[in-house]
Amino acid sequence: MTLENKEDVTVLILKFKRAAGLTWEGIAEKIGMSPVWTHSACMGMNAMPKDKAEALVKVLALPQEAALILEESPTKVWEQRVPTDPCIYRLYEIVGVYGPTIKALIHEKFGDGIMSAIDFDMSVTRVENPKGDRVKIEMSGKYLAYNSW
Amino acid sequence: MTLENKEDVTVLILKFKRAAGLTWEGIAEKIGMSPVWTHSACMGMNAMPKDKAEALVKVLALPQEAALILEESPTKVWEQRVPTDPCIYRLYEIVGVYGPTIKALIHEKFGDGIMSAIDFDMSVTRVENPKGDRVKIEMSGKYLAYNSW
Amino acid sequence: MTLENKEDVTVLILKFKRAAGLTWEGIAEKIGMSPVWTHSACMGMNAMPKDKAEALVKVLALPQEAALILEESPTKVWEQRVPTDPCIYRLYEIVGVYGPTIKALIHEKFGDGIMSAIDFDMSVTRVENPKGDRVKIEMSGKYLAYNSW
Amino acid sequence: MTLENKEDVTVLILKFKRAAGLTWEGIAEKIGMSPVWTHSACMGMNAMPKDKAEALVKVLALPQEAALILEESPTKVWEQRVPTDPCIYRLYEIVGVYGPTIKALIHEKFGDGIMSAIDFDMSVTRVENPKGDRVKIEMSGKYLAYNSW
Amino acid sequence: MTLENKEDVTVLILKFKRAAGLTWEGIAEKIGMSPVWTHSACMGMNAMPKDKAEALVKVLALPQEAALILEESPTKVWEQRVPTDPCIYRLYEIVGVYGPTIKALIHEKFGDGIMSAIDFDMSVTRVENPKGDRVKIEMSGKYLAYNSW
Amino acid sequence: MTLENKEDVTVLILKFKRAAGLTWEGIAEKIGMSPVWTHSACMGMNAMPKDKAEALVKVLALPQEAALILEESPTKVWEQRVPTDPCIYRLYEIVGVYGPTIKALIHEKFGDGIMSAIDFDMSVTRVENPKGDRVKIEMSGKYLAYNSW
Amino acid sequence: MTLENKEDVTVLILKFKRAAGLTWEGIAEKIGMSPVWTHSACMGMNAMPKDKAEALVKVLALPQEAALILEESPTKVWEQRVPTDPCIYRLYEIVGVYGPTIKALIHEKFGDGIMSAIDFDMSVTRVENPKGDRVKIEMSGKYLAYNSW
Amino acid sequence: MTLENKEDVTVLILKFKRAAGLTWEGIAEKIGMSPVWTHSACMGMNAMPKDKAEALVKVLALPQEAALILEESPTKVWEQRVPTDPCIYRLYEIVGVYGPTIKALIHEKFGDGIMSAIDFDMSVTRVENPKGDRVKIEMSGKYLAYNSW
Amino acid sequence: MTLENKEDVTVLILKFKRAAGLTWEGIAEKIGMSPVWTHSACMGMNAMPKDKAEALVKVLALPQEAALILEESPTKVWEQRVPTDPCIYRLYEIVGVYGPTIKALIHEKFGDGIMSAIDFDMSVTRVENPKGDRVKIEMSGKYLAYNSW
Amino acid sequence: MTLENKEDVTVLILKFKRAAGLTWEGIAEKIGMSPVWTHSACMGMNAMPKDKAEALVKVLALPQEAALILEESPTKVWEQRVPTDPCIYRLYEIVGVYGPTIKALIHEKFGDGIMSAIDFDMSVTRVENPKGDRVKIEMSGKYLAYNSW
Questions:
Q1: I want to staple E60 with a disulfide (CB 3.0 to 4.6 A). Which of C84, E16, J7, J76 is the partner?
Q2: Interface of G with J in 52-111 (CB under 8 A)
């Protein structure tokens, strides 16, 4: 099998991960990055720095040529229509309902600008709770102010 | 002016807030709720418990009839097409790129289920940083497992 | 034939079911689950608990590796455009016409919240009737109340 | 105010219902019909038989001309895009996920045909449950077989 | 060639029909059904009763397994966007322009209800005319009245 | 009230028709045209010949200026998305399912060409039937052959 | 290679045309038809009369079975979304901007009706001009008057 | 009535044209321009040179301020979805079917480039014909070659 | 006239600009900003710093309250469908054709990241040229590198 | 591998470029053209003059037949929906926000017309900046004036 692009590498990662019985958290720990970023880069949605690409190749025993492709800049294609999977849909529902609220509070706290989606990081954690455990998602992005000229 | 629905009340809230020189954080504190929930309920996207609706009416000196409408269950209508405002768009970009990642990690940590968008809360804060301050968004939702029958 | 995902397993189930001359009701009874849930899980729209997956593998003499895939969390993709098949279209017509009515009655009976589509079950039965037999569909979902914070 | 169409009558019904402090269940009982059908006809999505239209006019003290409009055949317009309100969206999610399952079971139980959405009725009830009360929706529609000619 | 679904059978029918030099009218006559229904069932848009499926298999010398598939209930998928072929487009133009007229006349002649598209038949004939021959399309569907409950 | 376009005239026609207690069949008979064409022209979807426009003005006692507007060529705007009203939707379902069949039979009976939607007429009638009365729709359009050059 | 439909024939035409170093004008002249019609029929968008199909088969040395397929009535599928190729887009821009103008002038010159796209022909020519040569497109279609009945 | 934009002027032109009993051809002749360009500029889809704007103001006795607005550069907004009016739709059908043909012939006659829709003119004429008169549309646009750099 | 939002202020700016016979370049020069930014802020697509808002109010003699609204953060709403105006469409055509090229060159010159549309400026100038003057558009945006974490 | 169209050639170019370790700038320099145009023509979005096609074939050691295909006029197909890749999306955001501004300034500086996207060139450069390097995009297109006739 020749590896030609990020899709090919993703297929291989999923296969080898299943075979090795690894979790995303486990892989992330082994290459010294967060689980969110690790999964996203494995899905071809982020470029890996050279050392991380090579670490991943070792962890999963991928063919060497996979490293070069993991380092390439991705073309990030995602569904423009709201997805139907309930677990993902709920995220759009939240952003749809609370988007204008987040915008209003960013402008109130920072001024005219945005939260960067490029200089950005995120985590997902499980929080125990007697009424039922909760999913906690934390996002952090650099504030970018609009330019006037 | 007769108040007939949540849109009418929102217009009035924005007008009286501007006149009173209040911020969303200030209003939220006065009614003892979070800024995110307060703004969202003022926008007509959440129903207010009776005491909070009455507190808001006092804080902004709204007409008494506004309280009843603030208590009603909203019909939450939000854009199904990805919005163009850069501050809101970046949130969709994040959910579009990282949605499958969040799904994979929820399944890995909890099993087959979702993060509720109903039993849910959120905050937006400013985090100081020498390389440029950052926007921090924290979401928390109850984990709901699929039923088998 | 290597089984790689739920689509592969569904194709096999349909083939073996036809060969064995089984009905969905028959299969459901044999694995001790309802026909609605059984068909849905066989279509790849629900994850099977381990014991049910293994029971199904036995009933249909599927290859052993099918069980692991039947246990995986599905990505539920369904048509966002209203489908054209008359039997399915009529369901959308009902939900389109009566959706706001169901919402109004849920709010009247429960308060501000929704019927869960996750903690949910459903049945389809035939009801004899001298004017022509009728299809009866029963849905039951947990009421979830909105959070205020 | 001249009443010209079903939208005008709906606005009036909502106003007089709020003023009279009535519920949909209460109105339905007074005119001797089910709550689902009553709400739907008040929303302009079903035509009222003459005696029911006149009963409703009395119950809510509507102007007499409202009765004629309530009797007219409606043009049923509903959103072709999946609605965003969470309470209504969940119904589409159910129909999207389980639509092919319902179709398969109807064909298995009845043959090649559909459940009518015209010769049809529905109820919404609250079912007490120690783990949290549940919403129960029951639909019943006449089976219609395809014609061969 | 293994026959797996209605698409496979349709391809075979078209091939054998061309080879045998038959017309749709000729095939229809041989199996004792109308040309409209016969073509539609051959296209996989209607289910064939057992005897008609077997008759068709004989007429076209199809493999025996085709009969079982011809008997299955189809999933009727048709273009939701108006098609561009001029011959088919004109039908949509007619329905687009005259749809509300047909609705008004059905309500005037029958009451609140619809013409069934399930208990339905249709014919297409050529009518000679000195100013240019004309296409005549006749549709007949059972009237279905809305239920009140 | 100034009449400026076909929409204005349609509103007036509906109002005067209701006031006069007339049916479409009755109006059609009085102006000596078919009910389908009459309703369609009253809806602004067809242009009226001068004498028919004047006859209609007399029958309904419309203001004289309405005649001129009834004679104008309409801009026929109809929904490009399949309409949701069940009575009209069924017509699209028929055309969606049987469109390719009608095309095949027209080509078989006439050659490469279409049924005109311009040199066209249509009727809607009620046919008594002991199993339930039926709606009969008849369409007739001139055959137009493609040009080769 | 078996020829099964118009797409297959088009691929072969393009290949043989390239190999033979022919132009569309050259082919058109050889079969005694216009270049516009010839290209369109080669693209599978028009049916060829028997003699023209056979002439084309000779000119390009196509396999004999291609003639039968060239004679078949096409299903004309074209992009319903405005195409992006600049050369084709400009044609839509012209029709978009000047469509209502053409309609107004047709009604002014002919009455209530249309220009046929079926009984229709077209040419594309190069016109020399010192300020830069110009493309000239001429269309001619039979006027069709609307029917009243 | 204050004139604020091209829409306002168009409404006035239509009104005064009807009152004066003028045709587009007649107006065009009076201002010394073609009927196509004149109608298009009156619809707000082209900017008028100063002298033509003033000539039109005189011909139709428009208020003087209309001239300035007629001279402004328009924002040309036209339907991106194919329009439904049969007279305009046929133009899209022609461009949809023959667009790739026109492109192929332009490239064959000129090289890699397009027909300009900016340096462009058009005419619509009636051509007598014993088999039925024909509409003739002629378009002429400057050829523009792509740049290489 | 009460000024309530940026739309109201834009209408006023256009009116007063026309009355004062000013150009965008002239206004921009008077407030000491670029023409691109000035026009954009006047259209409500950028927020004005306090001193610039006050300068604009003086230059155009706007009511004092306009300054506050000019300072507010805008909600930038723009057409998600490609616009039809030829002057704007050409910009989309350029971005559509050359977007992947710009992306490839940015990655080649900078690494994995983007050109900011927030920390951004632009100019439009006229460049004389004997073969026809040219429009020159220059854009400059800060390079933002993706974060790994 | 037979080369049949521009897609085939693009795949080969990418493969040979990677193997040769070349950059787009390096290739562009070797064939004496700009990087933007070179990348775009290699992607199949521009036609190459004969000498440039042959130069490219030499530089990358492509099969000789690639030259002919590189010379062909492309059919430029680009996404009509705004793309999701952040690097490309930002360009649409800029054109969406500033499109009307560019239009207003072109009309102010030139009159009623457009910037050509055909007689057009573009460059992308890196500009050093102590606050972070910047991407500079320069576009130049011939001004084209609308025709009046």
A1: E16
A2: 81-86
